[in-house]
C-alpha cells in the first residue's frame, strides 16, 4: 500500500455561530466544538483510508479561547499518523471575528480512528507529512501514541470496576 500525503485527507468546514449554540456565558458550547471536530476528523480519516472509519478515542481537547456570536468557526483536520489499522487525525478549530477579521485558534485535539470493512479492522495506507506543520504534528502524535497505551489500560481497569446497573438515588447515599 502506497503512503499518502497529509493533503489527501485535509478538509476545512466552516459554520456561523448562532445564539442557539451558545451557553449561559454567551460562548459556543464546548460539546458543540467537540462534535464538529469529530465530524471533520471522521471525514479526514475516511478520505485517507477509503474505508468506513469509526472513532476509537478523542485525546483531550484543548480549549484555547472563547468563540462568540460575532465569530464564525472553521475546523481543519488531516491525518498525521497511521498504525496498521488506525489513523490519528489532528483537528484545529479557528474562530474569526466577522467584523474585524481577527483569527485565533479556539481549540485543538487529536482523534484516533480505526478503519473497518465488514466490521473488522483493516490495514490503512501510511501517511506522508510534507510541510513543517505536518512534520511537527506527526512527531507530536508519535509521542502521544507512545503514552496512550497506559491510558487505554487504565480505562479497561475502570470499566471492570464500574457497574452498568442502575441504582436508586437512595442507594448512593
TrEMBL record:
Coiled-coil zones: none
Gene3D superfamilies per the UniProt record, alphabetical: Hotdog Thioesterase
SUPFAM superfamilies: Thioesterase/thiol ester dehydrase-isomerase (SSF54637)
Record protein name field: Acyl-CoA thioesterase
EC number(s) per entry: 3.1.2.20
Entry superkingdom: Bacteria
Keywords, sorted A to Z: Hydrolase
KW Phosphoprotein (keyword) present: no
GO molecular function, one term: fatty acyl-CoA hydrolase activity
Domain HotDog ACOT-type residues, every copy: 7-119
Native source species: Bacillus songklensis
Family label: Belongs to the acyl coenzyme A hydrolase family.
InterPro entries: Cytosol_ACT, HOTDOG_ACOT, HotDog_dom_sf, Thioestr_dom
Amino acid at each position: 500500500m502506497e503512503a499518502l500525503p497529509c493533503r489527501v485527507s485535509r478538509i476545512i468546514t466552516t459554520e456561523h455561530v448562532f445564539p442557539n449554540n451558545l451557553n449561559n456565558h454567551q460562548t459556543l458550547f464546548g460539546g458543540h466544538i467537540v462534535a464538529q471536530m469529530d465530524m471533520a476528523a471522521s471525514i479526514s480519516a475516511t478520505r485517507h483510508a477509503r474505508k468506513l472509519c469509526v472513532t476509537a478515542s478523542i485525546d483531550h481537547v484543548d480549549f484555547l479561547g472563547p468563540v462568540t456570536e460575532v465569530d464564525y468557526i472553521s475546523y481543519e483536520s488531516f491525518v498525521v499518523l497511521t498504525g496498521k489499522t488506525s489513523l490519528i487525525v489532528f483537528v484545529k478549530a479557528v474562530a474569526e471575528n466577522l467584523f474585524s477579521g481577527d483569527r485565533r485558534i479556539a481549540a485543538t485535539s487529536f482523534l484516533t480512528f480505526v478503519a473497518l470493512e465488514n466490521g473488522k479492522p483493516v490495514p490503512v495506507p501510511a501517511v506522508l507529512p510534507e510541510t513543517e506543520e505536518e512534520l511537527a504534528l506527526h512527531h507530536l502524535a508519535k509521542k502521544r501514541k507512545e503514552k496512550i497505551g497506559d491510558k487505554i489500560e487504565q480505562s479497561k481497569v475502570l470499566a471492570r470496576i464500574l457497574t452498568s446497573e442502575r441504582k436508586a438515588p437512595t442507594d448512593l447515599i
